[in-house]
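Researcher: Batch entry, complex prediction.
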Amino acid sequence: MEFKNSLVFAQQLDAIDPLRKYRNEFHFPKVKGKDVIYFTGNSLGLQPKRSQKFIDDIMKDWKDLAVEGHFHAEKPWWDYHERLAAPLAKVVGAKTPEVSVMNTLTVNLHMLMVSFYRPTQKRFKIICEEKAFPSDQYMLNSQVQFHGFDPDTAIVEVKKRPGENFWQTQDVLDKINEVGEELALVLIGGVNYYNGQVFNMEAITRAAKAQGAFVGWDLAHAVGNVGLNLHDWGVDFAAWCSYKYMNSGPGNASGIFVHQKYLNNNEIPRFEGWWGTRKETRFLMKPEFEPMENADAWQVSNPPVLSLAPYLASLEMFEEVGMETLISKRKLIVAYLEFILQEIDKETEGSFEIITPKDRGCQLSVFLHGQGKELFNYLMENGVITDWREPNVIRLAPAPFYCSFADMYNFGQILKSGILAKG
Ligand SMILES: Cc1ncc(COP(=O)(O)O)c(C=O)c1O
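Model: Structure tokens for the complex:
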């Protein structure tokens, strides 16, 4: 399609957007009385309007039924989490039993490391990407130290090539083969939080499995954003938060994936709690732990229904729309944003550069030349909500559920006036 940098053209794209009615399903913050242009779905997705009712229902059941709500609410609380598994499995390309929702992301990564990082003197190394999200670095370091190893030798980072802003898949594969029999685990962010790059999860998983290692993915920036096929790729485990593209609310619950081959397995080590034991016999309060036959075996505590409620509301929309439609709009809107950026860059003589490679999802990271945080501040003051990453990067993520093509055009105009204002 030949794009044009014009409002009329953008509005034409909006008119044929199959997701256009979903924009009105979300609450937009306002700046100067106008809906913002929201580019931070990669940090915290907007609030779906329907999430309020899901929360209100729980509050009402609690008011009217108190403890009886566990079993007699319209959506009983004791197995409330089970409602999220089937729609989430579609989002991540899993079988329903492979998915569960619990805790928060870093907690779940630690819990899954109990099962999937079991180092020996010979096989103890972990491969991750350089400058992984800090929480993942802390998690990996502390796990390695907990097992009595030194992070300097046990953690092997794949670096970007000098002068390049992204990781080459071949470099990840080479590193896996180089570490070889010492490799215990590969754990990488499926979509990098800084440059928005999508890793080739299938090829990396295959290579790591061929070396006899476990493979886990942190899908914080991937879930609800890019196509995932965790089961067929043979991924061992994954975890993700739900507050970015999944629009479930700040700090909200995390999902996990554990491949079918580890389900119903009493041998696999796990930190256990009462919600992981079989629900048929749970309330007999027996001392023996009998794992649930699905990924709920990793669930420790009873489900936090007040936070699962808005997650379920949001998943209802993912069910209605499907990942395919979301992904095709995402590709088009990101391509249009890229075009707008290129046009503005021409008009402002190279004021910035896109550092996100073509293997990308929703996010374009833009490195500013000769501009600083004042441009970011200008955008915020003028109703563009974006985020800033040191030293000079603005991240733009037009989430397909609620961003419009007209937003992309209008953003370009605001960006241009911000750059020109500085002179
Ligand atoms: C890639 C990545 N990993 C881990 C985290 C940490 O998530 P949480 O604070 O929910 O544990 C985040 C949060 O933004 C993230 O982006």
